Amino acid sequence: RVVDEWFTLDEATSGKLHLKLEWLTPKSTTEDLEQVLTSVKADKNQANDGLSAALLILYLDSARSLPNNPLEINQEGMKKAANQRFQLNNSGPNSNLKMKIALRVLHVEKPVHSPDETQASQVKRPSIFKGK
Question: Where are the domains of the chain?
Fold first, then answer.
């Protein structure tokens, strides 16, 4: 599903907030990797405004001298996940970081909708206001 909406800002003299939300499905195989990479490159070339966005969520305080264990981009690599504990420097003996890293291809699935179904009717349209 994709939501692509512009929201008017409350308490602002001008401007709107553009939100484009896409629900992505993680894949456990590489069969869609080339298609996804081609799609990303095509979108980048079509964006003539120079704007782009990405999301990486990583909660990590510090990492040094980590073991070299790369996940390969192939069928075997897609099945692997690095799942290790790392001792934290300058902390107690029981202080460690447990990290699980897995390689996945994120793919936007295009749903088939009937002509009378509208995505906009499923979206609540709250106003966006400027915080104090």
Answer: 1-23+108-132, 30-43+69-104
